[in-house]
Specification:
The structure is a single chain. By secondary structure, the chain is mostly beta strands. The protein has one domain: Glycosyl hydrolase domain, family 43 (Tachylectin-2, Chain A, 5 Propeller). The protein is 2% helix and 33% strand. Strands 13-17-16-15-14 form a 5-stranded mixed β-sheet, with no helix packed on it. It has a 4-stranded antiparallel β-sheet with strand order 1-2-3-4, with no helix packed on it. Strands 5-6-7-8 form a 4-stranded antiparallel β-sheet, with no helix packed on it. A hairpin with a 7-residue loop joins strand 3 and strand 4. The radius of gyration is 19 Å and the shape is globular.
Length: 370
């Protein structure tokens, strides 16, 4: 179903934001302004004005895919729970997922409603963080992180006959998985790979010994930084074909990115796409607030750092996905424009990506004033 902004929808949004959301709705869901989808070739330093895609609820961590010649977006659904901000990310206490779609960039954005609820996942206790989706043989799979009854993040999976859901969750998480931010990459041969991991609230720093420990174990600044994990999925799409392995992220000289290199080191939100035979791995740097990328010759890497995709936005950080639609690459990301900078109440945006002949990605700069 299609939403437009009205009182029925705004029950889930803070009252002080109502007038701002009404104004934003002139450009979003149902009447989306196309101007910001222009090709940003003029200058890397020139900031773009990029409008929110969705304004009637808060959304973040967008995972975008093209299914059946239509763009589908699988984001987090942010809510204001009143939880005090903390290093564990308790303020991000999401309870369900919505799926959105659009016929093309600039077209009407459709909210297909709730696709999966926390109470319908037998093993999950709280915090439905950033999801992703994949398709195989006409079945659609939603991959998601949640904390179990012990407060440990695991990766779950749910399936549906429709890309918009609703999805039915398996009774247990995927064996051998942990941490957060699952994404699935489909290679040209039809193989699917699960990527995951995030330090800080994502708990990846508690798995450095191969098992969960309730204390953080970070490397020193001069040691290799913690990197995302990856494994090929079985044909059933709901189990791992191999143990998770750590992806190698290096600088231009082939040396591992170090934990002290906060402008480049991995924090969370790994995403993989392929362009001209090369594998691109991109991620959030966390406390330096960038989306950066590296390039490799194999899905397992190693990946050599290449540059910045997205400069810092309003809010603590951003998380993203990259998808091609009709021979044009697009970046989906989030900031906190609609909430005036509240980091746990975010909104999804999209813009074109410019890729040079040598495969390098032009940096996007987008900043709004709270």
């Amino acid at each position: 179903m299609t939403f437009s902004v009205n009182r029925r929808m705004l029950h889930s949004v803070n009252k002080p934001l109502i007038w701002g959301l009404l104004a934003a709705s002139l450009f979003t869901t149902g009447c989306y302004n196309k101007d910001h989808l222009r090709n940003p070739h003029e200058s890397e330093a020139k900031e773009q004005k990029i409008l929110p895609l969705i304004s009637h609820i808060y959304t973040g961590d967008p995972a975008a895919h093209v299914f059946n010649n239509r763009i589908y977006i699988y984001p987090s659904h942010d809510v204001d729970t009143g939880v005090v901000h903390n290093d564990e990310g308790g303020q991000f206490d999401m309870r369900d997922y919505h799926v959105f779609s659009m016929a093309a960039p600039g077209a009407e954005v459709v909210d297909h409603g709730v696709a999966l609820r926390l109470e319908d996942i037998p093993w999950a206790s709280r915090q439905l963080w950033a999801p992703d989706a994949a398709e195989k043989n006409g079945t659609y799979y939603l991959y998601f992180p949640a904390k179990d009854s012990l407060g440990i993040f695991r990766i779950g999976v749910a399936s549906s006959e429709s890309p918009s859901g609703p999805f039915t969750a398996l009774p247990t998480p995927i064996l051998g998985t942990y941490s957060n931010d699952p994404t699935v990459f489909r290679d040209d041969d039809g193989s699917h790979y699960l990527l995951l991991g995030g330090i800080g609230g994502g708990q990846l720093q508690r798995w450095t010994q191969g098992f969960y420990q309730a204390v953080d174990d970070y490397p020193t600044d001069n040691e290799p930084a913690i990197a995302p994990r990856m494994a090929r999925l079985n044909e059933d799409m709901v189990s791992l074909a191999e143990p998770l392995r750590e992806i190698s992220l290096t600088d231009e000289t082939g040396k591992p990115l170090t934990a002290g290199d906060r402008d480049r080191r991995f924090f969370e939100g790994a995403w993989m796409h392929k362009h001209n035979g090369k594998y691109y791995l991109s991620w959030s740097t966390g406390d330096t607030h960038r989306i950066v990328y590296a390039v490799g010759d194999r899905p397992y890497g190693p990946f050599t750092y290449k540059g910045v995709i997205l400069e810092p936005v309003l809010g603590w950080t951003s998380q993203h996905s990259i998808v091609k639609f009709e021979d044009q690459w697009y970046l989906f990301f989030h900031d906190a424009e609609l909430s005036g900078g509240q980091t746990h109440l975010r909104n999804v945006k999209m813009t074109r990506l410019s890729v040079s002949g040598d495969g390098s990605i032009q940096t996007v700069s987008h900043r709004v004033t709270p």
